Amino acid sequence: MYNWKTVLITLGVLVGLKIWSPYLVDNIKWSYFDVLHQQKGEKLIEDIVLVDIDEKSLDKYGQYPWPRNIYSDIMLESHYTNTHVFTSEGNYLCMDGYGPVSVAKVALESITRQIGWELGQHGITANCIQAGVTPTRALTKISENWEEWIEKTKKRNPMGRTTEPDDVANVVQLMLQPGADFINCSIVYTDGGEHRSGTFV
Q1: CA distance 189 to 171
Q2: Total-model pTM
Q3: Burial class (CB in 10 A: 0-12, 13-18, 19+), 172
Q4: Beta bridge partners of residue 128, listed in sequence order
């Protein structure tokens, strides 16, 4: 028999956490999801390589941005045929506090196009995935007005909502299918049409 007092207290704590820190609850949910997968014995996809710009890679390859040959050598050596990077609407729209990220995104798109163009002859494709404004922990680090960004996005997005992490994950999964092997040097929009809705502000 349930102890309803315990259930109500637990529910109250969870609701309070959701209001106080929405992303803490999401992190708990994702951690629980990982545990379930491990218990079922399901293996995560192992043929995905993440190239991190961290201390280890900076020590190995030198100051960022790296020459194109470094990216091409990594891909040719690892025999991976699909490269996906993430860009944003800030690559062409002005957003409060987004200047440095905007510069990086424009450079990233240029590098990605060039990688796809130069390595296409080897069957290697490179594309950018442009998600819409997505309520994640990273968003809270970009601007103090991130909550306002979310509300504005809901109004300007044709589908009346923000992009969710699952939306982006689903597109990545589609892009990894053999049927997507001829998509190259492109920006794939994953935002419900948000990029067609005029200026951000």
Answers
A1: 9
A2: 0.64
A3: middle
A4: 85, 187
Q: Average pLDDT of the chain?
A: 79
Name the strands in the sheet holding 187-190, side by side, starting at the edge strand that comes first in the sequence.
82-87, 125-131, 187-190
Cβ pair 153, 133 in contact under 8 A: yes
3-state secondary structure of 197: coil
Average pLDDT of the residues in 147-164: 91
Q: Which pLDDT tens digit goes with each residue over 115-145? A: 899 888 888 899 999 999 998 877 887 778 8
Rg of the chain taking only CA atoms, in angstroms: 20
* CATH number of the domain residue 180 falls in: 3.40.50.720
Same domain, 23 and 55: no
Range of the domain at 24: 1-44
